[in-house]
Amino acid sequence: MAKDPNHPKTVKDAVALLRAGGICAFPTETVYGLGADATNSDAVLAIYEAKQRPRFNPLIAHCADMEMTEKYVRFSPLARKLSQLWPGPLSLVLPLREEAGIADIVTAGLDTLATRVPAHPVARQIIQAVGHPLAAPSANPSGKLSATTAEQVKKGFNDAVPVFDGGNCEMGLESTIIAIHEERVVQLRAGALPRIEIEQFLNCHVELATSEVGISAPGMLASHYAPKADISLNVETPEPDAAYLGFGKHQSSMPSALNLSPSADLHEAARNLFAYLHALDAYGVSRICVAPIPETGLGEAINDRLRRAAAPRQ
Ligand code: TXA
Ligand code: MG
User: Fold this and answer.
1) At residue 234, does pLDDT exceed 60?
2) Nearest atom in ligand 1 to 177's CA
3) Rounded Cα–Cα distance for residues 2 and 157 (Å)
4) What is the distance in A from the centroid of ligand 1 to the CA of 10?
5) Which residues contact residue 163 at a Cβ distance below 8 angstroms, ignoring those fewer than 6 apart?
6) Nearest CA to ligand 1 atom 6
7) CA-CA distances (angstroms) from residue 122 to 12, 78, 165?
Protein backbone atom coordinates (compact mmCIF):
# COMPACT_ATOMS: atom_id res chain seq x y z
CA MET A 1 0.00 0.00 0.00
CA ALA A 2 1.16 3.53 -0.78
CA LYS A 3 3.06 5.33 1.94
CA ASP A 4 1.89 8.73 3.14
CA PRO A 5 -1.72 8.32 2.06
CA ASN A 6 -4.02 11.25 1.60
CA HIS A 7 -5.59 11.34 5.06
CA PRO A 8 -9.23 12.44 4.79
CA LYS A 9 -9.70 15.84 6.42
CA THR A 10 -13.49 15.82 6.67
CA VAL A 11 -16.21 13.27 7.35
CA LYS A 12 -17.27 13.81 3.72
CA ASP A 13 -13.81 12.81 2.46
CA ALA A 14 -13.78 9.71 4.67
CA VAL A 15 -17.23 8.72 3.41
CA ALA A 16 -16.19 9.19 -0.25
CA LEU A 17 -13.14 7.00 0.31
CA LEU A 18 -15.18 4.23 1.97
CA ARG A 19 -17.95 4.39 -0.63
CA ALA A 20 -15.34 3.97 -3.36
CA GLY A 21 -14.20 0.69 -1.73
CA GLY A 22 -11.24 2.09 0.19
CA ILE A 23 -10.25 1.46 3.80
CA CYS A 24 -10.06 4.23 6.37
CA ALA A 25 -9.37 4.38 10.11
CA PHE A 26 -11.89 6.31 12.21
CA PRO A 27 -12.49 6.92 15.92
CA THR A 28 -15.05 5.10 18.05
CA GLU A 29 -15.65 5.63 21.76
CA THR A 30 -13.59 2.47 22.49
CA VAL A 31 -10.54 2.43 20.19
CA TYR A 32 -9.82 3.47 16.59
CA GLY A 33 -11.27 1.08 14.00
CA LEU A 34 -9.90 0.33 10.53
CA GLY A 35 -13.07 0.40 8.45
CA ALA A 36 -14.33 -0.85 5.11
CA ASP A 37 -17.79 -1.34 3.60
CA ALA A 38 -18.85 -4.71 5.04
CA THR A 39 -20.74 -5.60 1.86
CA ASN A 40 -17.66 -5.19 -0.36
CA SER A 41 -15.35 -8.24 -0.15
CA ASP A 42 -12.41 -6.57 -1.89
CA ALA A 43 -12.55 -3.63 0.50
CA VAL A 44 -12.71 -5.97 3.53
CA LEU A 45 -9.87 -8.06 2.14
CA ALA A 46 -7.71 -4.92 2.17
CA ILE A 47 -8.27 -4.66 5.96
CA TYR A 48 -6.99 -8.21 6.51
CA GLU A 49 -3.97 -7.42 4.35
CA ALA A 50 -3.15 -4.11 6.04
CA LYS A 51 -3.41 -5.70 9.50
CA GLN A 52 -1.88 -9.02 8.45
CA ARG A 53 -4.80 -10.55 10.25
CA PRO A 54 -5.45 -14.30 10.01
CA ARG A 55 -8.46 -14.91 7.78
CA PHE A 56 -10.14 -17.15 10.40
CA ASN A 57 -10.62 -14.13 12.66
CA PRO A 58 -13.97 -12.46 11.89
CA LEU A 59 -14.71 -8.73 12.10
CA ILE A 60 -17.31 -6.63 13.90
CA ALA A 61 -19.88 -4.92 11.63
CA HIS A 62 -20.56 -1.39 12.91
CA CYS A 63 -24.06 -0.06 12.24
CA ALA A 64 -25.47 3.46 12.48
CA ASP A 65 -28.62 2.43 14.35
CA MET A 66 -30.93 -0.43 15.25
CA GLU A 67 -32.72 -0.18 11.91
CA MET A 68 -29.49 -0.95 10.07
CA THR A 69 -28.57 -3.88 12.37
CA GLU A 70 -31.98 -5.48 11.81
CA LYS A 71 -31.26 -5.81 8.10
CA TYR A 72 -28.24 -8.02 8.81
CA VAL A 73 -28.91 -10.08 11.98
CA ARG A 74 -31.84 -11.73 13.79
CA PHE A 75 -32.77 -10.63 17.30
CA SER A 76 -34.23 -13.03 19.88
CA PRO A 77 -36.18 -11.30 22.69
CA LEU A 78 -33.09 -11.51 24.90
CA ALA A 79 -30.88 -10.00 22.17
CA ARG A 80 -33.42 -7.24 21.66
CA LYS A 81 -33.29 -6.42 25.34
CA LEU A 82 -29.47 -6.26 25.21
CA SER A 83 -29.63 -3.98 22.19
CA GLN A 84 -31.18 -1.35 24.46
CA LEU A 85 -27.61 -0.80 25.68
CA TRP A 86 -26.77 0.64 22.24
CA PRO A 87 -25.28 2.92 21.19
CA GLY A 88 -22.27 1.88 23.22
CA PRO A 89 -19.26 -0.38 23.78
CA LEU A 90 -21.13 -3.67 23.38
CA SER A 91 -20.82 -6.10 20.46
CA LEU A 92 -23.51 -8.76 20.05
CA VAL A 93 -22.85 -12.02 18.20
CA LEU A 94 -26.18 -12.86 16.55
CA PRO A 95 -27.49 -15.12 13.74
CA LEU A 96 -26.57 -13.63 10.37
CA ARG A 97 -29.21 -12.99 7.74
CA GLU A 98 -27.29 -14.82 5.03
CA GLU A 99 -29.12 -13.10 2.17
CA ALA A 100 -28.51 -9.57 3.41
CA GLY A 101 -25.20 -9.05 1.65
CA ILE A 102 -22.48 -9.02 4.32
CA ALA A 103 -19.28 -10.24 2.61
CA ASP A 104 -18.37 -13.81 3.71
CA ILE A 105 -14.90 -12.69 4.65
CA VAL A 106 -16.35 -10.45 7.41
CA THR A 107 -17.70 -13.46 9.35
CA ALA A 108 -14.86 -15.77 8.29
CA GLY A 109 -17.58 -18.14 7.10
CA LEU A 110 -19.46 -18.32 10.45
CA ASP A 111 -23.25 -18.19 10.49
CA THR A 112 -23.17 -15.43 13.11
CA LEU A 113 -22.21 -11.77 12.83
CA ALA A 114 -20.71 -9.62 15.58
CA THR A 115 -22.38 -6.23 15.39
CA ARG A 116 -22.48 -3.01 17.36
CA VAL A 117 -23.80 0.54 17.19
CA PRO A 118 -20.95 2.75 18.37
CA ALA A 119 -21.70 5.79 20.53
CA HIS A 120 -19.09 8.04 18.88
CA PRO A 121 -20.93 10.68 16.79
CA VAL A 122 -18.23 10.73 14.08
CA ALA A 123 -18.38 6.95 13.69
CA ARG A 124 -22.16 6.98 13.38
CA GLN A 125 -22.14 9.91 10.97
CA ILE A 126 -19.69 8.09 8.71
CA ILE A 127 -21.63 4.79 8.78
CA GLN A 128 -24.94 6.55 8.15
CA ALA A 129 -23.53 8.39 5.14
CA VAL A 130 -21.85 5.27 3.71
CA GLY A 131 -25.25 3.57 4.02
CA HIS A 132 -23.83 0.12 4.79
CA PRO A 133 -22.30 -1.38 7.95
CA LEU A 134 -18.56 -0.86 8.31
CA ALA A 135 -16.43 -3.89 9.12
CA ALA A 136 -13.84 -2.48 11.49
CA PRO A 137 -11.30 -4.30 13.60
CA SER A 138 -9.14 -2.29 15.97
CA ALA A 139 -6.75 -0.15 13.91
CA ASN A 140 -3.48 -1.87 14.76
CA PRO A 141 -1.34 -4.50 13.04
CA SER A 142 -2.55 -7.94 14.17
CA GLY A 143 -1.31 -8.92 17.64
CA LYS A 144 -0.06 -5.41 18.53
CA LEU A 145 -1.38 -2.76 20.91
CA SER A 146 -4.70 -1.16 19.96
CA ALA A 147 -4.72 2.56 19.15
CA THR A 148 -6.68 5.28 20.93
CA THR A 149 -5.28 8.25 18.96
CA ALA A 150 -4.92 8.97 15.23
CA GLU A 151 -1.16 9.36 15.72
CA GLN A 152 -0.85 5.82 17.13
CA VAL A 153 -2.73 4.43 14.13
CA LYS A 154 -0.43 6.26 11.70
CA LYS A 155 2.66 5.07 13.56
CA GLY A 156 1.40 1.48 13.88
CA PHE A 157 0.96 1.17 10.11
CA ASN A 158 4.03 3.28 9.16
CA ASP A 159 1.65 5.83 7.70
CA ALA A 160 0.40 3.38 5.10
CA VAL A 161 -3.37 3.60 5.80
CA PRO A 162 -5.69 6.63 5.55
CA VAL A 163 -6.77 7.89 8.97
CA PHE A 164 -9.59 10.28 9.80
CA ASP A 165 -8.45 12.11 12.94
CA GLY A 166 -11.49 12.57 15.17
CA GLY A 167 -9.64 13.09 18.44
CA ASN A 168 -8.76 10.65 21.22
CA CYS A 169 -11.01 7.74 22.16
CA GLU A 170 -12.88 8.34 25.37
CA MET A 171 -13.01 4.80 26.78
CA GLY A 172 -9.73 3.34 25.58
CA LEU A 173 -10.66 -0.36 25.72
CA GLU A 174 -12.44 -2.45 23.07
CA SER A 175 -16.13 -3.31 23.33
CA THR A 176 -17.41 -6.17 25.47
CA ILE A 177 -18.45 -9.07 23.20
CA ILE A 178 -21.58 -11.00 24.17
CA ALA A 179 -23.05 -14.03 22.41
CA ILE A 180 -26.44 -15.51 23.07
CA HIS A 181 -25.91 -19.23 22.98
CA GLU A 182 -28.87 -21.54 23.57
CA GLU A 183 -30.60 -18.67 25.41
CA ARG A 184 -27.62 -18.23 27.71
CA VAL A 185 -25.72 -14.96 27.81
CA VAL A 186 -22.00 -15.59 27.28
CA GLN A 187 -19.20 -13.03 27.44
CA LEU A 188 -16.65 -13.80 24.72
CA ARG A 189 -14.43 -10.82 25.51
CA ALA A 190 -14.31 -8.56 28.54
CA GLY A 191 -14.44 -4.93 27.46
CA ALA A 192 -15.43 -1.35 28.09
CA LEU A 193 -18.91 -2.29 29.32
CA PRO A 194 -18.30 -4.15 32.61
CA ARG A 195 -19.94 -7.59 32.92
CA ILE A 196 -21.52 -6.62 36.22
CA GLU A 197 -23.40 -3.78 34.50
CA ILE A 198 -24.81 -6.19 31.92
CA GLU A 199 -25.84 -8.59 34.72
CA GLN A 200 -27.57 -5.79 36.59
CA PHE A 201 -29.32 -4.62 33.43
CA LEU A 202 -30.59 -8.12 32.50
CA ASN A 203 -30.97 -9.32 36.06
CA CYS A 204 -29.29 -12.59 35.06
CA HIS A 205 -25.88 -14.23 35.19
CA VAL A 206 -23.46 -13.56 32.32
CA GLU A 207 -21.32 -16.66 31.78
CA LEU A 208 -17.69 -16.58 30.75
CA ALA A 209 -16.73 -18.34 27.52
CA THR A 210 -15.06 -21.60 28.50
CA SER A 211 -14.53 -24.81 26.58
CA GLU A 212 -17.56 -26.32 28.40
CA VAL A 213 -19.81 -23.49 27.18
CA GLY A 214 -18.68 -24.37 23.64
CA ILE A 215 -18.43 -20.92 22.09
CA SER A 216 -15.56 -18.46 21.76
CA ALA A 217 -14.30 -15.52 19.76
CA PRO A 218 -11.86 -16.93 17.18
CA GLY A 219 -9.54 -13.95 17.67
CA MET A 220 -8.99 -14.33 21.42
CA LEU A 221 -5.38 -15.49 21.26
CA ALA A 222 -3.30 -15.86 24.41
CA SER A 223 -0.71 -13.37 23.14
CA HIS A 224 -2.18 -10.12 21.88
CA TYR A 225 -1.85 -6.37 22.52
CA ALA A 226 1.89 -6.98 22.63
CA PRO A 227 4.25 -4.05 23.09
CA LYS A 228 7.91 -4.56 22.09
CA ALA A 229 8.99 -4.82 25.74
CA ASP A 230 8.28 -7.86 27.91
CA ILE A 231 5.60 -7.30 30.54
CA SER A 232 5.60 -8.40 34.20
CA LEU A 233 2.30 -8.16 36.07
CA ASN A 234 1.31 -7.49 39.71
CA VAL A 235 4.61 -5.80 40.56
CA GLU A 236 4.19 -3.74 43.73
CA THR A 237 7.73 -2.39 43.93
CA PRO A 238 9.23 -0.68 40.86
CA GLU A 239 12.54 -2.10 39.66
CA PRO A 240 15.46 0.15 38.61
CA ASP A 241 16.12 -1.40 35.19
CA ALA A 242 12.48 -1.66 34.03
CA ALA A 243 9.79 0.87 33.13
CA TYR A 244 6.86 1.02 35.57
CA LEU A 245 3.15 1.33 34.86
CA GLY A 246 1.62 2.32 38.17
CA PHE A 247 -1.93 2.36 39.52
CA GLY A 248 -3.15 4.19 42.61
CA LYS A 249 -0.56 4.20 45.38
CA HIS A 250 1.80 1.89 43.48
CA GLN A 251 3.88 4.34 41.52
CA SER A 252 7.43 5.40 40.75
CA SER A 253 9.18 8.71 40.18
CA MET A 254 11.57 7.27 37.59
CA PRO A 255 11.44 9.05 34.20
CA SER A 256 10.26 5.83 32.51
CA ALA A 257 7.21 5.52 34.78
CA LEU A 258 3.55 6.46 34.37
CA ASN A 259 0.52 6.02 36.60
CA LEU A 260 -2.66 4.73 34.93
CA SER A 261 -4.70 6.50 37.60
CA PRO A 262 -3.19 8.09 40.71
CA SER A 263 -6.69 8.12 42.27
CA ALA A 264 -7.19 4.40 41.44
CA ASP A 265 -10.12 5.17 39.11
CA LEU A 266 -10.63 2.22 36.72
CA HIS A 267 -12.27 4.39 34.01
CA GLU A 268 -9.25 6.65 33.93
CA ALA A 269 -6.96 3.60 33.89
CA ALA A 270 -8.87 2.05 30.95
CA ARG A 271 -8.64 5.30 28.99
CA ASN A 272 -4.88 5.53 29.56
CA LEU A 273 -3.93 1.85 29.21
CA PHE A 274 -2.99 1.55 25.53
CA ALA A 275 -1.61 5.09 25.27
CA TYR A 276 0.69 4.55 28.29
CA LEU A 277 1.87 1.14 27.06
CA HIS A 278 2.69 2.79 23.70
CA ALA A 279 4.53 5.60 25.56
CA LEU A 280 6.56 3.31 27.83
CA ASP A 281 7.44 1.07 24.88
CA ALA A 282 8.81 4.15 23.11
CA TYR A 283 11.46 4.44 25.86
CA GLY A 284 13.04 1.34 24.33
CA VAL A 285 13.19 -0.52 27.68
CA SER A 286 13.30 -4.32 27.55
CA ARG A 287 10.73 -4.79 30.33
CA ILE A 288 7.66 -2.98 31.65
CA CYS A 289 6.49 -3.84 35.20
CA VAL A 290 2.79 -3.24 35.91
CA ALA A 291 1.19 -2.52 39.29
CA PRO A 292 -1.66 -4.75 40.53
CA ILE A 293 -5.10 -3.73 39.18
CA PRO A 294 -8.24 -4.88 41.02
CA GLU A 295 -10.23 -7.54 39.13
CA THR A 296 -13.56 -5.75 39.64
CA GLY A 297 -15.80 -3.88 37.15
CA LEU A 298 -13.66 -2.50 34.33
CA GLY A 299 -10.63 -4.11 36.00
CA GLU A 300 -11.72 -7.41 34.43
CA ALA A 301 -11.10 -6.06 30.91
CA ILE A 302 -7.94 -4.14 31.88
CA ASN A 303 -6.42 -7.29 33.41
CA ASP A 304 -7.51 -9.35 30.38
CA ARG A 305 -5.56 -7.01 28.06
CA LEU A 306 -2.56 -6.95 30.40
CA ARG A 307 -2.42 -10.77 30.67
CA ARG A 308 -2.46 -11.08 26.88
CA ALA A 309 0.19 -8.36 26.59
CA ALA A 310 2.34 -10.34 29.05
CA ALA A 311 1.79 -13.78 27.48
CA PRO A 312 4.67 -15.49 25.63
CA ARG A 313 4.63 -14.22 22.03
CA GLN A 314 3.68 -16.67 19.27
O1 TXA B 1 -14.34 -1.78 20.46
C2 TXA B 1 -14.22 -2.62 19.56
O3 TXA B 1 -14.82 -3.70 19.57
C4 TXA B 1 -13.30 -2.26 18.39
C5 TXA B 1 -13.88 -1.01 17.73
C6 TXA B 1 -13.14 -0.61 16.48
O7 TXA B 1 -15.24 -1.20 17.50
N8 TXA B 1 -13.14 -3.34 17.47
C9 TXA B 1 -12.44 -4.47 17.78
O10 TXA B 1 -12.34 -5.40 16.74
O11 TXA B 1 -11.92 -4.67 18.86
P12 TXA B 1 -11.31 -6.59 16.71
O13 TXA B 1 -11.37 -7.12 15.32
O14 TXA B 1 -9.98 -6.14 17.19
O15 TXA B 1 -11.94 -7.67 17.67
C16 TXA B 1 -13.11 -8.33 17.30
C17 TXA B 1 -13.24 -9.63 18.04
C18 TXA B 1 -12.25 -10.71 17.60
O19 TXA B 1 -11.74 -11.36 18.77
C20 TXA B 1 -13.13 -11.67 16.80
O21 TXA B 1 -12.66 -12.98 16.86
C22 TXA B 1 -14.47 -11.51 17.49
O23 TXA B 1 -14.56 -10.13 17.77
N24 TXA B 1 -15.61 -11.85 16.60
C25 TXA B 1 -16.00 -11.22 15.48
N26 TXA B 1 -17.04 -11.84 14.90
C27 TXA B 1 -17.35 -12.90 15.69
C28 TXA B 1 -18.33 -13.93 15.64
N29 TXA B 1 -19.22 -14.01 14.64
N30 TXA B 1 -18.33 -14.85 16.64
C31 TXA B 1 -17.45 -14.78 17.64
N32 TXA B 1 -16.48 -13.82 17.75
C33 TXA B 1 -16.42 -12.90 16.78
MG1 MG C 1 -8.11 -6.00 18.07
Assistant:
1) yes
2) 23
3) 11
4) 26
5) 7, 24, 25, 26, 32, 139, 150, 153, 154
6) 33
7) 11, 29, 10
